[in-house]
Every structure is written in structure tokens, then in C-alpha cells.
């Protein structure tokens, strides 16, 4: 595997886990939180979308103004569609470039960050539904 293939694999793996941890989330669970100071699934999806936008900016040397991203529509299907579109744009740009700056942006803003939030969302899912299969993120 060359560097671009490794980067693509890591991005796809992280994205797959994000998609799987959100899969089957019931309508009334999108605003749920473990604690008041935690993010809800809606907030996590919007936050990850902003991270994907920030990754694209970072790889070309632009500074992102955190908190400037606002979803066009907060309905879960629209949030997911917007997140996936932003993620794909970021992946395409990062993989196409494949230089050191892109690899660092992909690692910090997407691969590690997605995994961090997958853990939070998996814990929330288990709290909401103890029967939820936490290993589903790997299938």
C-alpha cells in the first residue's frame, strides 16, 4: 500500500464506524445526551461536518473559524446527507493531494476525531438501548 491507499483506507474505516453507530438511531434519540455537557447525536453530526470543512481548509493553509458552520436543515436525514457530502468532498481533496499537510489534516480532523466521537455515540447508544450491538460498528 502506498500512502494514498493507507489514507483512503483510514478515512473509509472511520467513516464506516460513524455511519454504523448512527444507523438505526430512533427519531426521538437524536437529541439525547448522556449528560448536559455532552453532545447529542444531532450535535455530533453537525460538529463532524464542520470538522470535514475545517480539514479541507487546513490542508491548504486556511484557518477555520470554529462555530461558523450551521446545518442547512436539522432534521436527521438532512444532517446525515450534509455530513456525508462534506465528508466525501474532504476525502476527495485529501486523498488527491496526499501530501504531508493533507495526511496530517486527515489524521487530526477526521480519522482520530471520528473515532473519538464514535466512542461517545456508542456509549450513548448502549445507555439508550442496552441490547444495541456495539460490535455493529465493525460490520
Which SSEs are present, and which pair or pack?
Layout (H helix, E strand, L loop, with lengths): L2 H20 L18 H19 L16 H22 L2 H29 L11
What are its keywords?
globular; single chain; 139 residues; mainly alpha
What does this structure look like?
It is a single chain. The protein is mainly α. The protein is 65% helix and 0% strand. The protein has helices at 3-22, 41-59, 76-97, 100-128. α1 runs antiparallel to α3 (76-97), α2 (41-59) runs antiparallel to α4 and α3 (76-97) packs antiparallel against α4 (100-128). The protein starts with a helix and ends in an 11-residue tail after the last helix.
In brief:
With 139 residues, the protein is an all-alpha fold.
Molecular shape: globular
Give the total of beta strands: 0
- Helical amount among residues, as a percent range? 55-70%
Strand proportion: under 5%
